[in-house]
Amino acid sequence: MFQPRPKEQKYAWVPHVAHPEKNRYGTSIETVPEGHALRGQSLNINGDAAVFDNPNRYKQHGFYFNADRCISCHACEAACSEKNDLPPHLAFRSVGYLEGGTYPAYTRINISMACNHCDDPVCLKGCPTRAYTKFAEYGAVLQDPDICFGCGYCTWVCPYNAPQLDTKAGHVSKCNMCVDRLEVGLKPACASACLAGALDFGIVETTPEDRHQLEARIPGFPTPDISHPNIRFQQVNSLPRELRRTDSMPLRYERDEQGEGGEYVAKVADDGRPMRWNLKGLSTRENPLVIFTLVTQAVVGAFITLFVGPQFGVAVPTPATHPVAWPLMLFALLGIQTLALVLSTMHLGRPHRFYRAFNNLKFSPVSREVAGVAVFYNLLGVYAVSAGLPQLTGWLPAAFVDGLVVLSGWAATVAGLVALYFMHRIYRIPARPYWNHWQVLTSFYGSMLTLGCLLVAVFTAVVAWQTGQPYAATVSALSVPVAIGLVIDMVGLWRHAHDLGRGPGEAQAGHFLQLTDFGKTYRARNVMLAAALAAVVAIGYLGPEGGAGVLAWSVLALVVTIAALAGRAIFYAVVVPTTMPGAFFWKNAGFQQHARETGLAEMPQVGVLADSH
Questions:
Q1: Parallel, antiparallel, or unpaired: how do β-strands 61-66 and 231-234 relate?
Q2: Containing domain of residue 244, as a range?
Q3: Is 503 within a domain?
Q4: DSSP secondary-structure letter at 226?
Q5: Which side of the chain, N or C, has fewer Cβ within a 10 Å radius?
Q6: Does some domain include residue 445?
């Protein structure tokens, strides 16, 4: 257990003060009532089973930050890093700042931020491995790095940069509220170390000494509506109407003169950057997810086309008409999906612990997506074996095999559609407004129709061409769902771009990036989609046969695939999260990229790691 220093100063102790019954969100500050079974349990800190008699042990605690006092000395960062023995590339607490005004009336506001131990922790709900727990003791949200397998989803959903993904160690870790210090009555190390008295700590909704404000917002701080954070602010000094970040995020904060309280609203910071291709920038840590999502959507679409198509009179290959080519196609889909699943685990810091993704089906969309894809994959395998390999099922009653084929086929169809719905839910994140739009759903289902039907169309054309059979009628029928998929995708993209301009500042900033840093690639993708739609209508109407038809459909499939890859890469590359502001060097994506390009990242003390595991 943590041992206080001899003659510990008064400022280091958490004060015992009266508090209201509930906080501003309507949640009881008393985390568990008197006599509850949770009371008296040990936190087993450092293996110590002792339970201290802190009278405020079961009350929600939180941080207080006085922006008027912060001098950006980073003592809180240093104390936190020393207390938790952190490497240079991690910081559970960090200090960023915003700047505004012009010389000589130049103003800077500093913000010190760590985990806010929220009432509604979105990290806990999002984590597929259940590595997070909201404890009754002090209301602390704690995370176990040993359970985490390094997917990083908590870093997506948290609005405050609290969870830190360590790509070197392969897991996430974060602020633990210094519960070992709290057990003996001491404030967290960061609050105790603050030189200017800007950072404090105590029972939430109580006012520390020399304070008179308990605001839930401050310029640069994302809306508290997402997770109900347990942090309160004071900021009374005059600030200019506009504040800008010094990191590479194209965001500024403008005071809403019409709104109640004159709060600062995030808006895009148009710095006049030119339109570029930026093909290098399309490559991100999420590359495995680009491939995984597109392949899964294509496989689901292709299977549904093969299974449902004949029931609607579409003459796609069947076991009866193509006893060799049909199972070949089916097992090819199974093999492609297998490779995609393997590739998706490469996105994890600890790929060998992929099985933990099923641990949080109740809350996590990641767990639900993994479960949905796993069910579809296994049903696809059952269908492929039972329908495509009669030599393996010949010893079973024919009626049983026929029933298994029908049952597994329909079940796989439903499972595939449900899996894609769960896949889309992963990206409906309030902390990432660029993603939080119904366009994600139209994109995923549009890709399913377009890529899946194109895959079957090309396969059908090649098989028919090689056997000297006509195929124009079949692929012309398939051109209808291909066109529908393209239209669905294009309508979603149009509405997405329209709504981004009216959305939160981070949504506007994401759209600004796709029009500038990736502007040429973005427009080229849109042109390819429009050209593909015109081409599929023309080819479907003309119905070319033979080698010419195969070539036409193959080129069309190639164009659509390139457009899909570019679009999905942009989707991951331009998203601007509701992150806390960084500094010129620290917590600055622009500096991190510069460090990797120039070799500075090879120096551990710079604090920049590789962008992938």
A1: parallel
A2: 10-268
A3: yes
A4: T
A5: N
A6: yes
What pLDDT is stored for residue 393 in this prediction? 67
What DSSP string runs through 123-170? Answer: HHHH-TT--EEE-SSTT-EEE-TTT-----HHHHH-TTS-SEEETTTT
Helix or strand or coil: residue 68?
coil
pLDDT digits (tens, 9 = 90+) for 479-501: 999 999 999 999 999 999 999 98
Give residue-wise pLDDT tens across range 85-126: 999 889 999 999 999 988 888 899 999 999 999 999 999 999
For residue 321, what are its two tokens?
């008409």
Q: Which residues pair with 266 in a beta bridge?
A: 253
Q: Rounded distance, CA 173 to CA 181, Å?
A: 18
Q: Does one domain contain both 284 and 253?
A: no
Long-range contacts (CB closer than 8 Å, 24 or more residues apart) made by 406-409: 408/379, 408/382, 408/383, 409/307, 409/383
Angle at 440 between CA 281 and CA 538, to 5 degrees: 90
Q: Which amino acid is at 378?
A: N
User: pLDDT tens across 207-237, in order?
Assistant: 988 888 899 989 999 999 999 999 999 999 8
Say if residues 49 and 1 touch (Cβ distance below 8 Å). no
| Cα–Cα distance measured from residue 131 to residue 121, given in angstroms and rounded to the nearest whole number | 12
| DSSP state letters, 250-289 | -EEEEE-SSSGGG-EEEEE----PPP---TGGG--TTHHH
Instruction: Output the six-digit token pair for 516.
Output: 């500038």
Per-residue pLDDT at 610: 67
Q: Using alpha carbons only, how large is the chain's radius of gyration in Å?
A: 28
Cα pseudo-dihedral 109, 115, 120, 124, rounded to 10: 140
Are the C-beta atoms of residues 347 and 313 closer than 8 Å to each other? Answer: no
**Cβ 500 vs Cβ 507: under 8 Å:** yes
More confident call, 286 vs 584: 286
Query: Distance between CA atoms of 521 and 524, rounded to whole angstroms?
Result: 5
Determine the number of helices (DSSP H) and then strands (DSSP E) in the chain: 16, 12
Placement of tokens 């570029």 in the chain: 276
- Give CA 422 to chain center in angstroms: 13
SS (H, E, C) 37-63: CCCCCCCCECCECCCCCCCCCCECEEE
> From the CB of residue 178, how many other CB atoms can be counted at a distance below 10 Å?
24
Task: Give the Cβ contact number of residue 403 at 10 Å.
Answer: 12
CA-to-CA distance for 196 and 201, rounded, in angstroms? 14
Q: Which residue bears the tokens 């004071």?
A: 234
Predicted structure pTM score: 0.92
Residues 248 and 305 reside in one and the same domain: no
Query: For 47, how many CA atoms within 13 A lie in the half-sphere containing its CB?
Result: 0
Let me know whether 244 and 315 are in one domain: no
**232: β partners:** 64
378: pLDDT confidence band, cut at 50, 70 and 90?
very high
pLDDT at 600 over 70: yes
**Are 303 and 337 spatial neighbours (Cβ–Cβ below 8 Å)?**
no
SS3 428: coil
Name the domain boundary from 247, 268, 289: 268
| Structural domains in the chain (count) | 2
Contacts of 136 (CB under 8 A, 6+ apart): 31, 32, 36, 38, 39, 58
